[in-house]
Design the sequence.
């Protein structure tokens, strides 16, 4: 194997051959990305990158249990492969027994494309999007708006091999678009974002038209005090809140009494009604347009992730079923500790069960309330209630008698997503959305807009 000609699957096979540990897991991630950036209605930069990261997990059996060692490095050459394997083995031999130790996964069918070369993205992914963006620049300039933002597309091909015979592969495309429109004096700002697999379903003209309407709303300014307001949360804001709830839904933590999903006096809240509406929060690796890895890819252990679970098949999971809590996340180890079903995390999240009305239709049936654009700087205040705080951003609008009548000041909020689900009185149409706060880590989401009768705007914020 040479450094220049070795393919990812060959690197995985060679690393497994070099291993002298009792068990070994090797993950090769081949990544390529393309991006565009623009400011003031003009492209500023673009580029394409490629990279490779290799992760080796060595397991060593001992009288007190099985230890694990994990080492990851980028741009590993053929000459560096054996030192990497030896470093993982040394880390395992120097560690104590791993709490999450389990037998390595077996019996998963071979991916038929395991020996194929990695997928690759290039600037060609923007072949249709870039000209349409240029036309949006011209319309924005004529309309007295300035557009800022970026588009990013990434394709990661992951190869997973284990000493127990697993040979699995997954191609994960991921695209994001963030677009800001500003008035020439920068006093007014509006944001829109989209998640996409290939940029073929992104329409810059439609986004610019949406932002133009929002900048028009902002021409009238209304100052409001802090307080509780009927509030329409758009899908992006709902996604940011429920993704944090999802990350906090550890079965082990709930059993140990540390989370909002813990039952007072012991146990979990599984079976409790969390929403009066018949909402279902679910994940599915085969969800159309939101496809994600159908098996565990764990580069480290911690929380609800275990390197011993690498290759474990992942299926569709309902976390909340028609308003009732039905699953919490577990590894094989934490499931055995708690008696809960094995429920690995899945890299997408969908909330459905609403009435299929659009956000515009929900606005039209609002007597008086607030319409948000997005949330940011979300932080946890109290894990026992999952109370979160954060800020509104890029437009909070006043709705009166079914129409948006102006922009109001921004706010700091204090809310729990669990509490919001319980108090929500309407859910609209589920649609793919890009989380604003967590978009760098979690992009595959589909959410409805939610109507909350008493959203807690705890203080006024001076942010734009």
Sequence:
């Amino acid at each position: 194997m040479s450094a220049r000609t070795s393919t990812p699957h060959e690197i995985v096979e060679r690393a497994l051959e070099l291993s002298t540990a009792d068990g070994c897991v090797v993950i090769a991630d081949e990544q390529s990305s393309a991006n565009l950036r623009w400011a003031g209605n003009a492209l500023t930069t673009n580029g394409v990158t490629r990279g490779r990261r290799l992760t080796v997990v060595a397991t060593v059996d001992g009288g007190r249990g099985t230890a694990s060692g994990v080492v990851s490095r980028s741009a590993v050459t053929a000459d560096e492969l054996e030192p990497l394997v030896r470093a993982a083995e040394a880390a395992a031999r120097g560690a104590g027994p791993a709490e999450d130790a389990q037998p390595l996964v077996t019996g998963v069918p071979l991916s038929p494309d395991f020996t194929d070369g990695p997928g690759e993205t290039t600037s060609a992914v923007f072949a249709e999007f870039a000209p349409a963006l240029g036309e949006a620049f011209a319309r924005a300039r004529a309309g007295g708006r300035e557009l800022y933002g970026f588009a990013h597309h990434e394709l990661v091909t992951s190869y997973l091999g284990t000493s127990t015979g697993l040979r699995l592969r997954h191609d994960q495309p991921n695209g994001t678009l963030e677009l800001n429109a500003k008035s020439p004096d920068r006093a007014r700002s509006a944001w829109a974002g989209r998640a996409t697999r290939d940029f073929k379903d992104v329409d810059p003209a439609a986004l610019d038209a949406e932002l133009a309407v929002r900048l028009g709303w902002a021409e009238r300014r209304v100052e409001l005090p802090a307080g509780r307001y009927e509030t329409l949360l758009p899908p992006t804001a709902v996604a940011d809140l429920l993704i944090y709830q999802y990350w906090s839904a550890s079965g082990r933590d709930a059993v140990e009494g540390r989370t909002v999903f813990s039952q007072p006096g012991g146990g979990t809240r599984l079976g409790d009604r969390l929403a009066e509406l018949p909402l279902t929060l679910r994940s599915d690796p085969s969800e159309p347009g939101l496809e994600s890895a159908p098996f565990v890819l764990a580069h480290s252990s911690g929380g609800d992730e275990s390197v011993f679970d690498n290759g474990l098949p992942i299926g569709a999971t309902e976390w909340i079923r028609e308003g009732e809590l039905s699953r919490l996340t577990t590894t094989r180890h934490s499931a055995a500790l708690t008696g809960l079903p094995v429920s690995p995390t899945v890299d997408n999240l969908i909330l459905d069960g609403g009435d299929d009305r659009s956000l515009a239709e929900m606005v039209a049936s609002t007597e008086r309330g607030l319409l948000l654009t997005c949330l940011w700087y979300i932080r946890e205040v109290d894990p026992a209630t999952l109370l979160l705080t954060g800020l509104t951003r890029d437009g909070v609008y006043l709705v009166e008698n079914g129409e948006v009548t102006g922009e109001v000041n921004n706010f700091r909020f204090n809310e729990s997503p669990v509490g919001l689900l319980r108090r929500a009185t309407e859910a609209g149409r589920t649609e793919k959305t890009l989380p604003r706060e967590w978009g760098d880590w979690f992009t595959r989401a589909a959410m409805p807009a939610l109507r909350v009768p008493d959203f807690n705007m705890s203080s006024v914020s001076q942010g734009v």
